[in-house]
């Protein structure tokens, strides 16, 4: 488990932009069964989360279409919440960071770590905006 002092600023990069911080399995279950579209970010301390995932996700929300609900859990910190979230990401293996889009509780789009790592934030944003255009 990562120390709180390390994690909180990284969480704030999303929560300050309107993301709900899901810290318990019950919060994850409630969030992912909402009607409409829900974006779930499994946040992480790694460099690709800092350099591409978080900035890319935030930038993706500047377009016309965007998800109805914005949510996040933090790998290595909110262990039980992350475990609950990952149950909804099958058949994809555990990956952090990763970004998932749900529509009416069903997974419709997924960006795994290998899609994020080595790509600029703009590419992450463009990928997500294409998914929003299709599903939101």
From TrEMBL:
Superkingdom of source: Bacteria
A Pfam family matched in the record: Disulph_isomer
Residue ranges that the Swiss-Prot or TrEMBL entry lists as coiled coil: none
Membership in a protein family: Belongs to the bacilliredoxin family.
Protein name per its UniProtKB record: BrxA/BrxB family bacilliredoxin
Organism: Chryseobacterium formosus
Highest classification ranks of the organism: Bacteria, Pseudomonadati, Bacteroidota, Flavobacteriia, Flavobacteriales
